[in-house]
Design brief:
Distance between the termini: 136 Å
CATH topology of the domain at 336-449: Trna Endonuclease, Chain: A, domain 1
Number of helices: 22
Structural class: alpha/beta
Number of strands: 5
Largest sheet: 5 strands, mixed
Strand content: 5-15%
Strand order of the largest sheet: 1-2-3-4-5
Length: 452
Amino acid sequence: MSSFVILIIILGTVFGILTFFIVKSFISPRRIETLNELLKKKRYTQVVRTAKRLLVNDPHSIDLHYLLGMAYLGDGKAELALMELKKINQIGQFTNFCREIPFRKQIAELYTRFNQIDEALKEYLLLIKAQPDEAVYYYTAGELLEARGSGTKAVSFFMKTVELDKNFADAHYKLGLLLYLNKKPMEARNELEKAVKLKPDNYPAYFYLGKLLKESHDYAGALKALEKAQRSPEFKGRALIERGICYMSMNNYDRAIPELERALKNVADKTGNEYMYGGYFLAYCYEKLRKLDRAIEIWERIYAKKPGFKDVAEKLSQYQELSSDDRMKDYLTAKKEDFIDICRAAVKVMNLTVQDLCEIPNGCELTAMEINTKWRNARKMPKLIQFLRVSDVIDQSTVRNLHEKMKKKNLTRGIIVTSSTFSRTAYAYADIRPIDLLDKNRLTELLKKADL
C-alpha cells in the first residue's frame, strides 16, 4: 500500500473524529435544552426515557444526570433522584446548566429527607463556605447538629444565624431551647421572648418560656405563656400539666386539679411518662385536699401500669390502714373543723386540756395544759403539740422548728404527732431535748382511746 493511500486513510479518520465532536457539541446543548423544556412541562417520563438513552453514549454528562435526577424528583422518586445527584458529586464538576449552589441545596435536602445527617451537614458546610452571609445555611446546619446530638456545636450555628438575621424567629427559638437545656435560664429566656415576639404562633417557644418562668417562681407569667402553648396539639397535655404544677406551687390545689384532669384527657399514651406524671401530681393535689380515696384510686392506677414509678408503692403502703381503720381514715380525710375536734379528743387522752389552737400546714398546733397532777400543789406545765397528717417522713427540721417555737413561747415540753414516721435524725434531735415523737402507731392507739 502506497504512502499516499495511508495518508488519505489517516486524514479521513481524523476528519471523521472531528466531525463527530463538532456534531456532538452542536447537538448535545440542543438536546439538553429540549429535555429541560420537557422537564418544565412536567413530562417526567419522557425526560427519564430520553436521558437514560443518551447517558449510554455519554455516561459522564453532568447535565444529563442532573435532568434525570430532577425528572425522578418530579415523578416522586426521590431515592432515584438522589442516586443521580450523587453521581454528579462524584464527578465533582458543574456547568452553566447544573450550577453548584442550587445543586448543593437540592442534594442536601434529599440527604436530610433520607436521614443521612452527616452527608447533609457536609453539603451545608460547603454552602456556608460558598455563601457565608446566608443565615438559613447556618440554621439548617444547626438543626442537623442538634439531630446528631451535638447540641453544644449547634448553639454556635444558631447564634451565627441570629447574628446575620435578627428577625429569624425559629433560630431564636432553637437557640433559646438549647440554652434552657444547658441550664442557662437568663440567656434562654431572652431568646424565647424574642422568638414569640417575632412569631406569635410559636407555641413550643411559649411552652419552654412558661417552664422557665415557672422555675423562676413567676407563676403569673408562666400561666399566661402556658395558656398560649395549649394551642399546639403536641404541647397541650404538657402545658396543662405545667399549669397544674404552677397552681400546686401556689398551694391552689382547687385550681390545679381541673388543669391536671384536662391534661390526662389530652395525653394519648396512657402508659407513658407524661400520663404518669400528670396522674401523680393530680393524686398529690387530692392528698393535700384530704380526698384520699380519690388519691389512692389514682395511685393504684399508676401502680398497675408502672409499679416502680416514683414513690407510688410507698404511698399505697402508707395509706393501707384506711381500708381497716376508720378512725385513722377520719383523721386523714376529715375537714378542718372535724380534724380539730379529733385533735382535741386525742389531747384529752393525754390528760391535757387545750388552751390555744391554730392551723399549720398539713395539721394543727395547740398549747395544752395538764388536767391534773399527782401532787396537789405541783405546777402544771403547758406543752406545745403539733398534729400532722402527712405521708412524708418527718425529718429533723420539723422537730427543730417546734423546739424554736417552744423557746419563743417559754414552753418546756413539746410533742409531735404524725400519721407517718420520723427519720433517724429527727429521733436523735428529740432524744436530747424535751420533745416526744409519736408516729402513726402511737397515733392509732390515741385515736382508739379518744372519744370521737
